[in-house]
Amino acid sequence: MTSPLALLGGTPAVANSGPHFTWPPIDDITRAKVLAQLDSAVSVPGRSGIVADLEDALQDYFGARHAITTSSGTAALHASYWAARIQPGNEVIVPAWTFHATASPLFHLGAAPILCETLPAGNIDPARVAELITPRTRAIMVTHLWGKPADMTGLTALAKDCDLDLLEDGSHAHGASHGGQKVGTFGLAGAFSLNGPKPLSGGEGGFVLTDDDDTYYRILTFAHYNKRARKEIPQGHPLARYAVTGAGLKLRIHPLAAALAHDQLTRLDAYLAGREEIAAYLTRELSQVPALEVTPVPEGVKSSWYALTATYQPDQLGGLPTDRFHEALVAEGATEFDLPGSTRPLNQLPLYQHPSHPSYLFPGYPNTHSRCRPGDFPIAEKAHTHTIKLPVWHREQDLDLAEQYVSAARKVSEHHKELL
Ligand SMILES: *Cc1c(COP(=O)(O)O)cnc(C)c1O
């Protein structure tokens, strides 16, 4: 007897072969805007032209006093830590499960990322943060994993009580909000990526939001030396005399990336509204599939739906391993189902396990933090190994594709015995 499963020779559940999800959406208006930029300026050293337009639009959208563009999200995070005066020997509490760039810039500042256990849904657990605070702790960094805001009520109160700076990595979560407030605006600074697949994309790029003037001048010093720093840092400010060189790095966004991001920002709310509809459909339908559990978004929380995540429960399918279940989904043509690769518990990464040896990435860096062995963060690690994620479409016409993906999941689940 042949199996209906595509992995075993059957007909795939998803009719066309894809790609099924491309990002960012680019139309003729986008093309015209980027081409116009190509003709007007491909280098913008000051806060003028498309860079000023994008920063103004970001300030309006987020309701922030300052938005400063950078060359990447990694650069935005690095600048934010430096602007927050993170120094050698300081500790910064970071989620154990995030993309590594949330915390990796700390190695360059001689500071220690202190990994913190997450809640089963992936965001940092405020109760665990409280347990990790020491006299060396200077700040808490929060990622809003897959676009779902972390518990900002608990984290804001904790940071305030303990006199720590709260920093955010909003790279998955442009436009997401908690209690009506957009993420990236809760603490001293919010850093964002504008990289390819992110909810707001310039292809490459990043930005930092802050309401604090001094933090703004520090970020200019870190990322925008010479013309811009000279023009914007007031005479008499202690950093003004460093304006020509800044701190030695130059981390500006490319004007063509700024033009793309500027175009995309005008559409962001429409993207998010469309995703909300399809995410509601996927949440409802995938929850009905035995073996998949989709946690609903709590009241008062709005996700950007960078990804919809389901927790796979192998015991529901006779112990069928996650990767075998995933392989069967992909064979069904549901190729956008993905097991998170680079966004993984940081204690599993060599950079975090051995920052100073054996290959001398950071010679002399103190190997003080012992909690970087596999198994040190059982909740985050278990959640990571059982997570299957899916990008969320935003156009009504993609609902048909979403339905085919649901059928694929149902089919693999129904016929799982053939894979055991
Ligand atoms: C993408 C990403 C970054 C890094 O941004 P780049 O623009 O690629 O440098 C940092 N943190 C998170 C959570 C990300 O998803």
Automatic annotation (TrEMBL):
<dbReference type="Pfam" id="PF01041">
    <property type="entry name" value="DegT_DnrJ_EryC1"/>
</dbReference>
<protein>
    <submittedName>
        <fullName>dTDP-4-amino-4,6-dideoxygalactose transaminase</fullName>
    </submittedName>
</protein>
<dbReference type="InterPro" id="IPR000653">
    <property type="entry name" value="DegT/StrS_aminotransferase"/>
</dbReference>
<feature type="modified residue" description="N6-(pyridoxal phosphate)lysine">
    <location>
        <position position="198"/>
    </location>
</feature>
<dbReference type="GO" id="GO:0030170">
    <property type="term" value="F:pyridoxal phosphate binding"/>
</dbReference>
<dbReference type="InterPro" id="IPR015424">
    <property type="entry name" value="PyrdxlP-dep_Trfase"/>
</dbReference>
<dbReference type="InterPro" id="IPR015421">
    <property type="entry name" value="PyrdxlP-dep_Trfase_major"/>
</dbReference>
<keyword id="KW-0663">Pyridoxal phosphate</keyword>
<dbReference type="GO" id="GO:0000271">
    <property type="term" value="P:polysaccharide biosynthetic process"/>
</dbReference>
<keyword id="KW-0808">Transferase</keyword>
<dbReference type="GO" id="GO:0008483">
    <property type="term" value="F:transaminase activity"/>
</dbReference>
<dbReference type="InterPro" id="IPR015422">
    <property type="entry name" value="PyrdxlP-dep_Trfase_small"/>
</dbReference>
<keyword id="KW-0032">Aminotransferase</keyword>
<comment type="similarity">
    <text>Belongs to the DegT/DnrJ/EryC1 family. L-glutamine:2-deoxy-scyllo-inosose/scyllo-inosose aminotransferase subfamily.</text>
</comment>
<feature type="active site" description="Proton acceptor">
    <location>
        <position position="198"/>
    </location>
</feature>
